[in-house]
Amino acid sequence: MILPNKYIKEHDSLIGVGAIVLQTIGAKKDFSTLWDTIKQQKISYQRFIFALDILYAMGLIESQENQILRVKNND
After folding, report:
1. Most CB contacts within 10 A, which of 12, 21, 39, 57?
2. Run of H or E including 64
3. Residue 25: CA atoms inside 13 Å, Cβ hemisphere, count?
């Protein structure tokens, strides 16, 4: 479910959905606007939320005042 394998396509895996979310966020985006953009790609709300959880756990996004922010890499 998290990683693609021979049964789960890359687009359906949470890492794949996370990549789509990161591409869509840009610098910062309102949560509902982000969801409206993502759902047009036929991604379920549950996978969207799980992808946000994984991205947050990996330190790639933050949430501030209903805004989803992409974390800048200092390297």
Report:
1. 21
2. strand 61-64
3. 23
User: Residue 26 contacts by C-beta under 8 Å, 6 or more apart in sequence?
Assistant: 70
Neighbours of 13 (CB within 10 A): 18
Q: pLDDT tens digit string along 24-70?
A: 887 667 888 889 988 888 888 998 999 999 999 988 888 888 888 88
Residue reference for tokens 């992808």: 51
Alpha carbon dihedral 4, 1, 70, 24, in 10-degree steps, equals 70
| Paired sense of beta strands 28-30 and 67-70, if any | antiparallel
Residues paired with residue 64 on neighbouring β-strands, in sequence order? 67
Do 71 and 62 meet the contact criterion of CB atoms below 8 Å apart?
A: yes
Name 61's bridge partners: 70
Q: Whole-model pTM? A: 0.82
